[in-house]
């Protein structure tokens, strides 16, 4: 069976997008996991691998125009992916000829829409990041009897860093740090521990360090559950923006737009707080790099020699955009 993939990225967070509604025969869950692990491998995978696979299909839920499933590079399934959702929004916009609709994700139908291009040739989309919860039960987090962790030292992890745990709805553990800590080894030490066998987050957690750069400007570095370090994590940048508005009101306000820099570029976010509900709008690039056709059996075997690969040439415009932003190296 031939499959068609699109290599996509949001802020350099890379995925293979597969529209499963086009397949003559459904993939089994075991095939999905094997396909993901094979093609995303950064050493032996397709086109240098990726951070995960985005499965797009029709939705059976009322009010949703399509469905997105997110498979991390290790084959685990995530409840949400902000950068991925922007690329799925672009794909469905072109497929359905709609520019404002909802996409079904694991826990919620989320609003997506086309946004103004970030720069010449850099298509952008705006997606809703929701629902938000600080509850330990939603985070599957266990620190003694704590029902939430908001801006506090967790001696189990570090004697000095303060952490906040928030689900959007995938789980995030976030610490605001100085530039030396942002670039230092602590993030990898803590995140790799929490994403191995451990009593605090037995199902793993996305861990981010955030640097306050100035008014409405932050930098976020993330070690993702099921992946490792990525260039950017959309839900982490959204959660970090929400926490900036909550914990550092001199740096961000609800309803204002923040610039969120990351190792792969920059996105914009708008944290919202209305009627006791939090949510975030995430606005950023949705870049299509390559269109690929290959045989499923070959892909499952890790053989890409017969793959037909058609580059889109969008990446050159994205890299020009990255050159214009004042990022941290
Ligand atoms: N990169 C994504 C998040 C992907 C899921 C994450 N690794 C998890 O397991 O929760 C994003 O852009 O949000």
From TrEMBL:
Q: Which pathway does the database say it acts in?
A: Amino-acid biosynthesis; L-lysine biosynthesis via DAP pathway; DL-2,6-diaminopimelate from LL-2,6-diaminopimelate: step 1/1
Alphabetically sorted, this entry's keywords are: Amino-acid biosynthesis, Cytoplasm, Isomerase, Lysine biosynthesis
Task: Spell out the InterPro entries in the cross-references.
Answer: DAP_epimerase_AS, DAP_epimerase_DapF
Which residues does the Swiss-Prot or TrEMBL record annotate as the active site?
81, 233
Q: Which domain of life is it from?
A: Bacteria
What's the EC number here?
5.1.1.7
Write out the catalysed reaction. (2S,6S)-2,6-diaminopimelate = meso-2,6-diaminopimelate
GO annotation terms (biological process): lysine biosynthetic process via diaminopimelate
Assign the protein's first listed, main location to one coarse class: cytoplasm
A Gene Ontology cellular component where this protein is annotated is: cytosol
Binding-site residues, substrate: 13, 72, 82-83, 170, 206, 224-225, 234-235
Which residues are tagged with the site Could be important to modulate the pK values of the two catalytic cysteine residues? 172, 224
- Whether Chaperone counts among this entry's keywords is no
* Single GO MF descriptor: diaminopimelate epimerase activity
Q: Where in the cell is it found?
A: Cytoplasm
Q: Which family does it belong to?
A: Belongs to the diaminopimelate epimerase family.
UniProt cross-references to HAMAP family, sorted A to Z: DAP_epimerase
Q: Which PANTHER family match?
A: DIAMINOPIMELATE EPIMERASE, DIAMINOPIMELATE EPIMERASE, CHLOROPLASTIC
Q: What does this protein do?
A: Catalyzes the stereoinversion of LL-2,6-diaminopimelate (L,L-DAP) to meso-diaminopimelate (meso-DAP), a precursor of L-lysine and an essential component of the bacterial peptidoglycan.
Oligomer status and interactors:
Homodimer.
Identification of the protein by name: Diaminopimelate epimerase
